[in-house]
Amino acid sequence: MGSTARARLSRRARARLAAEGGFTLPELLVTMAILLIVVASLASVLVSATRSQVDASARFQAQGQARAGLNQLRRELHCASAVTQTSGTALTAGTAYNAISLTLSSVCPTTGGTSLFATWCTSASTLTTGDFALYRVTSTSTPPTCATSGKVKWADYLQPTTLGPPPASTPFCLPSTSAACGGVLKPTTSLPMLHVVLPVNLNGPTSTKDGYNLVDDIALRNGTRS
Amino acid sequence: MTPRLRRLRLQREEGFTLVELLIAMIVLTIGILALVAAYTSGYVALNRATRTSSEQLIADSQMERFRALNYNNIQLNRTCGTNCAEDTTYTSDSTYSSTAEISGCTTTDTTCLPTQTKTGPDGRSYRLDTYINYGCVSGTLATSPSLTCGTGQPSPVKKVTVVVTSSGGTGTGSSGAVSTREQSSFTSLLGS
Measured between alpha carbons, how far is B65 from B67 in angstroms, rounded to an integer? Predict the structure, then answer.
């Protein structure tokens, strides 16, 4: 490279470095305004997505708890040697109860090796006014009630199964071949089946939106087929 | 800045070319589409998970009813008219065999109906198909002269297959029908 060429190059470079052309203030303002609109719309999408994610996760958790409760209840009902009211009186066919008491032998997997009475009951929810929660409480001497201390909550956000007043949650019902529970009769020559209804809804006691209505008929396997 | 320079700047007409603008817009569109696709796939997955779990609950519930029955009563009702209709969806299942289905039930209990519609916990409708036929734990099933699994083999069992299909959508794609299948065998040792 000759000295003339080098001089021309450095002159050009100097000129570029000295150039002060840039964006004008209006240009910058317009750009920023457009950017703001785009970012704001994206942010609103993000906020609504986060909100619905929080809602979905709460619903998922409530439904999961109810399913876990139903599974535990199913295991215990399969093993129970008797299912009665908490007073010890037999269940009346076709009548819905808010509490049932299970007699469990020490060989049942959920007893920890001791014969006990396990009561499943519903009592007012501590989270939403008007809703109910499902509890389990055990005792080795007599069938406990929901008022007994030491009860463990298994599910919450349960809607009342019978609309008031006063509203009550009565999820347990034993159908016979003639007395139905929620439209379900016991089939002939079948084991007794306990009809369980757990309507989970995070939107309050009377909402019909986004409900999760867990319904199951659980066989009492130590019963007799009739 | 001299007045002449200012006039020059205002007169300047350089800007983005159409090609530059198009490229920028395409890049932006690709970015936005990717975001939208993420939301859509999340929604589809959630929907699918809800339907699958509802189907499992319905299938479990139906199996539980069979467990409550004695061996002799595990049978279908195939002669109750429209209630017991076996449509092409039912008969095209791999478990179906027109001759091997065990029938004899005379009621319309949920365990007796080949096809029925159930409402899941999520409030959607699900189709519940039940198939009952004989099978062998080991050995080969022979129906003539008597029902047997061969010499020295255990007695035949009743195989109950429950298929639950969500009716929300068609096809087998990610947003289409999902189905859950459960099978259980029942032996005569259950008592008759």
Answer: 5
Q: Give the other-Cβ count within 10 Å of B148's Cβ.
A: 16
Residues linked to residue B181 through DSSP beta bridges, in sequence order: B163
Residue spans of beta strands (DSSP E) within A87-184: 96-97, 99-104, 116-124, 132-139, 152-158, 172-173
pLDDT tens for residues B53-109? 999 999 999 999 998 888 888 999 888 888 788 888 888 888 888 778 888 888 888
Q: Judge residue A125's burial from the number of C-beta atoms within 10 Å of its C-beta, 0-12 exposed, 13-18 middle, 19 or more buried.
A: buried
Q: What is the pLDDT of residue B10?
A: 66
DSSP B114: S
CA A34 and chain centroid, separation? 43
Taking a C-beta distance cutoff of 8 angstroms, is the pair B152, B116 a contact? no
Tally of CB atoms within 10 A around A106: 10
- The pLDDT value recorded for residue A157 is 92
Q: Identify all chain B residues contacting A67, using CB atoms and an 8 Å cutoff.
A: 57
Amino acid, single-letter form, for residue A221: R
Q: Is A183 left (phi over 0), alpha (psi -120 to 50) or beta?
A: left
Nearest CA to CA, how far is B70 from chain A (Å)? Answer: 7
Q: In chain B, which residues have their Cβ closer than 8 Å to the Cβ of A193? A: 64-65, 68
Structure tokens that stand for A98 in this block? 């808010």
Within a 10 A sphere around the Cβ of A150, how many other Cβ atoms? 10
Non-local (6+) Cβ contacts of A11 within 8 A are none
Q: Which of A141, A59, A204 is nearest to B53 (CA)?
A: A59
Q: Are A128 and A152 in contact (CB under 8 A)?
A: no
Query: For chain B, which residues lie within 8 Å of any Cβ of chain A, measuring from their own Cβ?
Result: 35, 39, 46, 57, 60-61, 64-65, 67-70, 73, 107, 109-111, 121-123, 191
- Do B179 and B51 meet the contact criterion of CB atoms below 8 Å apart? no
Residue B77, min C-alpha distance to chain A (Å): 14
Tell me the chain B residues in contact with residue A212 when contact means C-beta distances shorter than 8 Å: 121-122
A139 touching chain B per CB within 8 A: no
ipTM of predicted assembly, 2 dp: 0.76
Structure tokens at A188: 């002939």
Structure tokens at A26: 């209006």
